[in-house]
Amino acid sequence: MRAGRQQIEHTTYRNLAVVVKRWPGAPADFFTAEAAGLATLAGAGALRVPRVLALEPERLVLEDLGEGVQKGAFWTIAGEGLAAQHAVRHARFGFKRDGYCGPTPQSNAWNDDGWTFFAEQRLLPQVRRALDGGHLSADDVAAVERMCLRLRELIPGQPASLLHGDLWMGNLHCCADGAPALIDAGAVHYGWVESELAMLTLFGSPPDAFWRAYEARATVAGDWRERAPIYNLYHLLNHLNLFGGSYLAGTREVLGRFS
Fold first, then answer.
1. Active site includes 166?
2. What count of other Cβ atoms lies within 10 Å of the Cβ of residue 235?
3. In this predicted model, what pLDDT tens digit does every residue of 134-160 receive, in sequence order?
4. Are 19 and 10 in contact (CB under 8 A)?
5. What's this model's pTM, rounded to 2 decimal places?
6. If 0-12 CB within 10 Å is exposed, 13-18 middle and 19+ buried, where does residue 150 land?
């Protein structure tokens, strides 16, 4: 999800075609977090990401990948690339720095336990913010807290894998040459692969060619879609906090099923 306060401009920089992202008054580390995420994804050698050409507190200058028409192998390349990225693992959950999911600060303090990480650094901060903002009731908060206590029962153990962290369909970009790339990487961290796959189904879903290519290269439980709403609760809460009540029904539906 792109931070709503950002201004995006396609221009030239040192005779190169670039994308300039601006956010006047942005948090001091906002674009630094995205630059760090892009560098980490690039280091994985999996899917393409834009190169960072300049970094300032209120401005990020990126290589312009252009925008084109998907080639026939687009979804196969995307599935294989994401599987290669997810094969990069860490001993702990988190990241070397905190990040942002859209404009929302996201704690990435290292944690040995994935269930604790997801509860304490993903779900509970969003719930407290939603309560303070008047978006959720005390009963809703209690439901999320009950769900957090059940996470070990609801979610199987998984290693900490390299995630984009905000991978909805809009952040799987089609470049000018028709190949896929990842953009908007401020939420990069090491976490559960199933949570990344779940978000890819939250607002639309890649076609079967993507899933076939991904599953041919990665080991993923066949029933992960049954758990997708649990992972996507984090993003529903984030959207509730950012955009208001249109996400309340979806949030409560998940709580009704799993709390």
1. yes
2. 23
3. 999 999 999 999 999 999 999 999 999
4. yes
5. 0.95
6. middle
